[in-house]
Amino acid sequence: MDAIILQIMNGLDKGAAYALIALGLTLAFGTLGVVNFAHGALFMLGAFCAVTLQKLLTLETVKIDPTRTTPWGTPLEIRTPYVQDMLGDWGRVLIDYSVPVSILIAIPVMLLIGVALERGLIRFFYKRPHADQILVTFGLAIVLQEIVKQIFGANSIPQAAPAIASGSLAITDAIVYPYWRMVYLVFSLLVIGAVFAFLQLTTFGMVVRAGMQDRETVGLLGINVERRFTIVFGIAAIVAGLAGVMYTPIVPPDYHMGMDFLVLSFVVVVVGGMGSLPGAVLAGFLLGIVQSFASMNEIKSLIPGIDQIIIYLVAVVVLLVRPRGLMGRKGVMES
Amino acid sequence: MKPTTKLADLILLLCFAAAVAAGPVILAPIGAGYPDLLDKFVIYGIFAVGFNILFGLTGYLSFGHAAFLGVGSYAAVWSFKLISMDLLPAVLASVVLSGLLALVIGFVSLRRSGIYFSILTLAFAQMCYNMAYSVLTPITNGETGLRVLRDDPRVLDAALGRTGFTPSLAGLEMTGWTGYYVSGAILVIAFAISIAIFRSPFGMTLRAIKSNQKRMGYTGYNTRPFLLTAFVISGMYAGLAGSLLAATDPLAGAERMQWTASGEVVLMTILGGAGTLLGPVLGTGLIKYFENIFSAYNAHQLDVTFSFLPDGVREWVVHGLGLFVGEGWALTLGLLFMGVVIFLPGGIMEGIMRLGRLKRTPIVKSLGDSPQRDVIGERAIDEMPPEDGSAPARKEAPKGETHAGEPQKPVKSSEMKAATS
Amino acid sequence: MSTSPIVLHIDNVSKTFAGLLALSNVNLDIREGETHAIIGPNGAGKSTLLNVCIGGLEPSRGKVLLAGTELTGRRPHEINQLGVARVFQTPEIFGDLTVIENVMMAILSHRDGAFRPRFVTRFDQQSDIGRTAGAALEKLGLGDHLHHIAGALSRGDKRRLELVMSVVQEPKLLLLDEPTAGMARADTNATIEILRQFKDAGMTIVIIEHDMHVVFSLADRITVLAGGRVIAQGLPEDIKGNPKVVEAYLGEEQV
Hints:
The complex is a heterotrimer of chains A (335), B (421) and C (255).
Chain A: H1 2-32, H2 39-57, E1 60-69, E2 75-81, H3 82-87, H4 89-96, H5 98-120, H6 130-152, E3 168-170, E4 176-178, H7 179-201, H8 203-213, H9 215-220, H10 225-247, H11 257-272, H12 277-294, H13 297-302, H14 306-321
Antiparallel strand pairs in A: 1-2, 3-4
Helix pairs in contact in A: 1-7, 1-10, 1-11, 1-12, 2-5, 2-6, 2-10, 2-11, 5-10, 7-8, 7-10, 8-10, 11-12, 11-14, 12-14
Chain B: H1 6-21, H2 23-27, H3 35-58, H4 66-82, H5 87-109, H6 114-133, H7 137-140, E1 146-147, H8 155-160, E2 168-169, E3 172-173, H9 176-199, H10 201-211, H11 213-218, H12 223-248, E4 251-252, H13 259-272, H14 279-296, H15 299-305, H16 311-322, H17 329-343, H18 347-359, H19 370-383, H20 391-396, H21 409-420
Antiparallel strand pairs in B: 1-4, 2-3
Chain C: E1 6-17, E2 20-31, E3 35-39, H1 46-54, E4 61-66, E5 69-70, H2 76-81, E6 84-87, H3 99-111, H4 128-139, H5 155-167, E7 173-177, H6 185-200, E8 205-208, H7 212-218, E9 221-226, E10 229-234, H8 236-240, H9 243-254
Parallel strand pairs in C: 3-8, 3-9, 6-7, 7-8
Antiparallel strand pairs in C: 1-2, 1-4, 4-5, 9-10
Helix pairs in contact in C: 3-4, 3-5
């Protein structure tokens, strides 16, 4: 029983990441009709927003204290981050909380990146075949990750969660759950909720939803759908970026983390039903949990290697049994 | 515009064979005249030619073909280990196994089309890749890679008293120039088969599927078996390429199955021109050549190359270019990928056509690939005096006939509007 | 005429979409060699009837038989193989193929069955099928366009090409969905001439049409649909004066 609860909880935070990425993918797809293979790269860029902030915050000054020496007899070098130098204890807190603080940076940065990508590249591909969209965004993904690799190197860069959230909660003896994963889960739910609220409750969201249903008619009403869709792409980028920022304490980011997540996220989108936002979220959590169960030792010893392929297997089965995915609309992406 | 003739195809094939034969001489001036690189041209050329039969003709974009390449490699190495270092059983094993795998994957994936198909193939390839690293480690030897060992049984070799460790074909060792010519001969055969498929009723059926699936149904075709056949054929090509890879370097690793490898063959095909006969081979040559040149460069070499520049400028140039060479080759590849899709969706072959059009001279028709013919056909229409001056006909004419993808929606919707207005 | 065998037998077919009655107890027999027009105001259920017959749409009730073979539930390619050819309102052709290749595909499908990939045979104008295709195109006035890309043809020519593709299959039944929609008068007349050739050659034709000029030039019998029901059926001269038909059409025009 404990093991089952643990697996569900483990699955939830991974599922939350899948759900967030899949949500962004679906947003971009449902509004712009664009299959974005660079979405994983946006996730990765978000993660590197956190890395960048942490690097900036921990830039250090070096002072030499002539009164003290190291055990080797050289003068002692005292390294203090500039922020701490300037802000004192507040600086220390800032460094400790660099990951959550990164959110504030990631939002404008990702919005900018998203809008720039849409205006500069994606919009020229609305009318092109899906194969072209896949290919150009695939190229874009490679370019983005290579740029990050040039700047930050090929190794992964661990990020620490704030000290307060770095421990684990021991629910029972068998169930130990890191606080940060809980934070991640709650954060994801908040972001998902915000996106849905935005789409359901605001006029902007209403237009976007209407546009997802029937773009031409909304255009005929004299509403500038294009501009709104640009913003939607920006929002999708933000969602991916935030998922990336908050994921950094769980898995140290490296330049190809986006690709790893992208393939899975597409599978999630397809399982959820292309173009369905609730489907994407549902499938994300579902597949996260399924994967988590598959990596239980009991199950792995029964069917070796199942943890490696379970998601793909589920996807294949869903697509064959329920071709439109769990909650897909009719006629989406079917030619 | 004239349709292609048998003679033109024969000439094309002969020229192709001659180019492969003279490859070492032709490519020597650009520094590519050595067997290792030419091997890659030829082997990945086979891969791309096969991929083109699926993607170029039917427009079904598979993102999982690297799986077949990988399986081909493993099968070949196992054949080396168990049977003999001879290439023949290895090739047979690879082609048969990858064909079977393609049959299974294709059977499932082809139940869907468009992006779903791409994602299904991607999912299957990732499954193969993950399994090669985990459950199947006894077969694939995981991250270390599979290689021929001293104590392998090699039944046939043992019986014949052969002890060599180099893969060979009927005594021709697969190293150096011999290796290149053996692979090259196989490429020529593969290319000939590809021409035959392009010109056959089967090939036309595949092009028709790409053009209009609805019409296919109402014309009495069940498209799935045709698609599956094409999928299996292209999977077998990939397996063949995989076995040759294993033969020139008898070590098979799972990284050959990663989805970026699948992406690479897509790039090779579209760079040259999907749906054209020669395009995929050209694309492969170009990519592998630049990969080789670019990734071999380092800062020092750049320094030497640009030594004529004043110091400050040179450092700047070297630093800038340094991003794109050596380790940065992947960045160049990504940019190339985007550039081709954005500016030249028909690939190099279309580029050549466009140049021809600029000059206003008749274009070489002997190549006779359909997209080229399309372009010529369009031009013929463009140049004709409008029969009834009807706008829709002109509007529909410049549609990108050359490019792969799903049956093109925009055209249809515009037709639809014309019909209802 | 009424003694010739029945080709298409539509037996008491009804179709509902989400509770909405699109077709209600439609009975219709098409006899060999006749040209049968189905007319009716917009939304009368003409297209639904067509789709129920051969478009893979299952009727809610009733059945459709082609020369005694049940068609309901069959996929389009099977129905085509059974001998029904269809011409669409918006031309559906292989836009990336040349004109002659389009027709060759149509012939190939019936010469070789739906699936028999012949890999090695060269397939071009010189082949047996290519010559047949060329001759058929020549006959219907597309001889100058043999090697043009079909997608670049004018609208009228596309439609004509689709007609050629249908007749080379020598279908038991040819279904035409508004073959002259959006055409200029001259083109319409040309199309009527072509269809008359088919008719004279003894082909069984079902034509759905708005243009009464076309209908009365060609039809041997007419069925009028309105609101998913057959409101009149008979010879053209009977339909012309039928008050119910007039009412159905006038009712539409007032809107």
